[in-house]
Amino acid sequence: MVLQRLDALVVITLTGEGFQRRGGGATGYVKETYLAHLIPQSDPNLETGDYWDVSPALSLDVLTKQDFLDLVEGLEAEFQREFIAQQVDDKQDRVLVVGLMTQQMTQQEFDDSLAELKRLVDTAGGEVLQEISQKRPSAHPQTVVGAGKVEEIALRAQTLGANLVAFDRDLSPAQVRNLESRIGVRVVDRTEVILDIFAQRAQSGAGKLQVELAQLEYMLPRLTGRGQAMSRLGGGIGTRGPGETKLETERRAIQRRLARLQQEVNQLQAHRSRLRQQRQKKDVPTVAIVGYTNAGKSTTINALTNAEVYTADQLFATLDPTTRRLSLTYPVTGESRTILLTDTVGFIQNLPTSLMDAFRATLEEVTEADALLHVVDLSHPAWVSQIRSVTSILSEMPIAPGPMLLAFNKIDLVDSETLAIAKEEYPLAVFFSATSRFGFETLRQKLLQLVDYAAIGP
Ligand SMILES: Nc1nc2c(ncn2[C@@H]2O[C@H](COP(=O)(O)OP(=O)(O)OP(=O)(O)O)[C@@H](O)[C@H]2O)c(=O)[nH]1
Ligand SMILES: [Mg+2]
After folding, report:
1. Which residues approach ligand 1 with their CB closer than 6 A?
2. Which of 81, 169, 318, 379 is deepest in the core (most CB within 10 A)?
3. How far apart (Å, rounded) are the C-alpha atoms in residues 359 and 201?
4. Is there a single domain that holds both residue 305 and residue 173?
């Protein structure tokens, strides 16, 4: 009914017999009739999972006395009330998240990834209404999930009043078009949600510049073929950012803009590189803090150096790099040594390539550092795969071959068993807590060893 946009539906079962009345008309053909209509969301029946109400068997007489217009208008009014109630905060997207579990994934990987997408949607300012998942050996080439699942998504989107469907994977431009035309609301992929968070977070000129570049690079192949109803200018996840007013302008204008932005990022890159060279001349080693987003990198630099980097229990709280001096003391000789510590943007599994390219000037702070401090949130259930993601992203970067220190953070939240497992697996790592400052002295000493080692080389 939802898909056909029907208000009410009547089902008539036949007796297989009946006759013409002598005075005209017929009787006896109809056995029973049923009246079905959709029910508004607040209806208690929804708890049983029903979106609709089907009447008990009615005689044709009773059915024909039903005032359909009255019924439909009453329902419409109720749906309308709910719709308005849902729209109170019209800046907040109402989102269905969809996950596809393919053969290459374990159940754990799938669950972690979907949980992360929900967190991303939440960070972007959307409200997650429900998650829908499907197991398939591989993605359906046209619609990612199967035809039946697409219908289910459309139905849920309508009945729950969702205005956005977020898929936990990357979608091709054609897949987005197919899904949007079948579901009837805007469809975004994981990359778009991440880009949206970046767009909201970008504060500095450099940050905004790089986000706009990433968004345009992502959107350029997707600009054609969107219906007017799906215009990206509507607002909400995937539409914000410095580039938003330009998205509907001509492709060529966008390409010119892209070329310009690329140039500006190159200039930024050159500028940062000069700054680094000046630092290198002074022979002060730099250590870049890397790690999964929300691992506690900014909290760590703040605690070590009294920097005032914004920290929050949010994904991608930090976009712009911050560098601070840190003075360390050798325990035996009492001699001191200064190093530079750089905090920067966090990583995430399957970091979008358009972001990696656009953020090259920022990421160079990492690739050009003398050594890396890899901060891991040991209290996160997916810490093992987060280490793997960070390592894999680093391996894709043209990185200077300096040493790396693994540092497990948030041990104040960790049970002794997890701690024992991590210590066994990573005997050379540091275990600390940036907020309670537990293990800080060891962290400082290991940082000294790290830069000494970097100076000598492996
Ligand atoms: N309990 C506890 N919380 C911590 C610790 N270190 C950091 N946090 C919290 O973890 C959250 C994330 O910390 P941030 O320092 O912003 O993390 P980040 O790695 O800079 O994250 P992004 O910049 O978003 O990539 C914040 O709410 C911190 O207060 C810790 O040792 N213990
Ligand atoms: Mg941070």
Report:
1. 291, 293-299, 311-318, 346, 409-410, 412-413, 433-435
2. 318
3. 14
4. no
